[in-house]
Design brief:
Layout (H helix, E strand, L loop, with lengths): L6 E6 L5 E2 L15 E5 L8 H6 L29 E3 L1 H7 L3 E6 L9 H14 L4 E5 L3 H13 L2 E7 L4 H9 L3 E5 L3 H16 L6 E3 L7 H6 L1 H9 L7 E5 L4 H15 L8 E7 L4 H8 L25 H10 L3 E5 L1 H14 L9 H12 L8 E6 L7 H18 L1
Parallel strand pairs: 5-13, 6-7, 6-9, 7-8, 10-11, 10-13, 11-12
Antiparallel strand pairs: 1-2, 1-3, 4-5
Helix pairs in contact: 3-4, 4-5, 8-9, 12-13, 12-14
The structure holds pyridoxal-5'-phosphate and zinc ion (ZN).
């Protein structure tokens, strides 16, 4: 396997054991814990000036800080997304500046592409010929695209509530689409059963690219923070508000900010804020209760599919990142979330996904609570393109118009 010089081990976040990434491909073989790529930052020969001189063309421009060198990457030119200034939102929130990191500009329309370029690169380096995962939808679509790019088979387990676009495009890319009745956890059960059958021979050799089963999704998603900080001319934003499901992106960005600080590129960390929908908010509930770990959410009542994750296994790590960065967590209603998506589309012209707008409505709520200062820089993650959720957005608009007509 070809790895970068600085990538020295996979460290288990539970038992602390360090493993060789050549032989350990996924979770900790000793305790089953999540593994995290560990870097020897002293081995990184890189300066801010060198980075700035590189073309802003793909997330692989940070290759020294990634597990694999650029020449090995299974890539579609993902990352390097725009950071769009939103003066109307800044005024509304009473802060110095608001930016939207627009991840909708990725190859399959969401930031899940960052995770799958990492996971598929690892799969190829490990000699896999098929990948498998369960997902709420966007990661499945991204996995099918990157598997196609690499010439691997993709087995994608989605809940029936996943969007039409995500299901359709998984098949258009040639993926083997399996639909489970229920939620992402039900798709997870079917995935797990198929993986087990795989180990008994029938479907041998499926390589998982599932959330926090592969160590390479959160690690490569950290590039969202590298890019944001560089796009702000090395100013660290005061707050980053992130639509949180499994927390992959939040953990990744916090890791990135820590690495930049350790390299001496910056001297602070952005406050990481988890935004969720009131209809599925296990991380927010744990945060508010001061708990170290979430309790599984039992009844999901949100249309925000991408964050309808009732049992996020990495919650202790998410809560640590929030505490370490002096951030927070906030849940808002579906009505407020969808209103926020429409408001951004109308005032700033940016197409924010339904799920993603939880970061916008969450930021509005945080601003109202007085969480931000008047000169703060706040970054909102638009994790996916608005046109992936046209049905949800349009039907909310329809419902609003109907209510307005009735009120007349
Ligand atoms: C997957 C997804 C999320 C949640 O991502 P995590 O990193 O797992 O918390 C948010 N928004 C969209 C659009 C997604 O597809
Ligand atoms: Zn372990």
């Amino acid at each position: 396997m070809r790895t970068t010089d600085a990538f020295v081990a996979l460290r288990c976040i539970d038992c602390g054991e360090r493993h060789d990434p050549e032989t350990v491909t996924h979770r900790c073989p000793d305790c089953g814990g999540i593994t995290d790529p560990e870097y020897d930052l002293d081995a990184v020969d890189l300066s801010r000036e060198e980075l700035a001189a590189r073309p802003f063309d793909s997330l692989w421009r940070y290759e020294e800080l990634l597990p694999f060198p650029r020449e090995t990457a299974v890539t579609l030119g993902e990352g390097a997304t725009p950071l769009v200034e939103c003066p109307t939102l800044a005024e509304r929130m009473g802060v110095g500046a608001v930016y939207i990191k627009d991840e909708g500009r990725n190859p399959t329309g969401t930031f899940k592409d960052r995770g799958q370029t990492g996971a598929l690169t690892a799969a190829v380096e490990h000699g896999a010929d098929a990948i498998a995962l369960n997902s709420a939808g966007n990661a499945g679509q991204a996995a099918a695209a990157y598997a196609a790019r690499a010439g691997l088979d993709a087995h994608v387990f989605l809940p029936d509530r996943a969007g039409f676009t995500q299901k359709a495009m998984t098949e258009v890319h040639g993926g083997d689409l399996r639909i489970a009745e229920g939620e992402i956890t039900d798709a997870g059960a079917e995935y797990a059963a198929a993986m087990e059958a795989g180990n008994e021979g029938a479907e041998a050799g499926w390589y998982s690219t599932k959330t926090f089963v592969t160590p390479y999704r959160h690690d490569v998603k950290k590039t969202m923070a590298f890019e944001t900080i560089e796009q702000l001319d090395w100013d660290v934003p005061d707050a980053v508000v992130y639509p949180t499901g499994g927390g992959v992106g939040l953990i990744g960005m916090h890791k990135a900010a820590t690495e930049f600080r350790e390299l001496g590129f910056t001297d602070s960390l952005p406050g990481m804020y988890a935004a969720q929908a009131e209809g599925c908010a296990p991380v927010v509930r744990a945060f508010e209760e001061g708990a170290a770990v979430h309790e599984a959410w039992t009844e999901i009542t949100t249309v925000c599919n991408g964050i309808a994750v009732p049992d996020p296994g990495a919650s202790p790590w998410i809560l640590d990142a929030i505490a370490e960065s002096d951030g927070g967590a906030v849940a808002t209603s579906d009505g407020a979330i969808l209103d926020a998506a429409i408001e951004v589309a109308r005032t700033e012209g940016i197409e924010v996904g339904a799920t993603c707008a939880s970061a916008v409505s969450g930021a509005f709520e945080l601003a109202e609570r007085g969480e931000f200062d008047e000169d703060d820089t706040v970054v909102l993650l638009n994790t996916g393109a608005g046109n992936k959720d046209v049905d949800t957005l349009r039907s909310h608009l329809g419902a609003r118009e109907e209510a307005a007509t009735e009120a007349e």
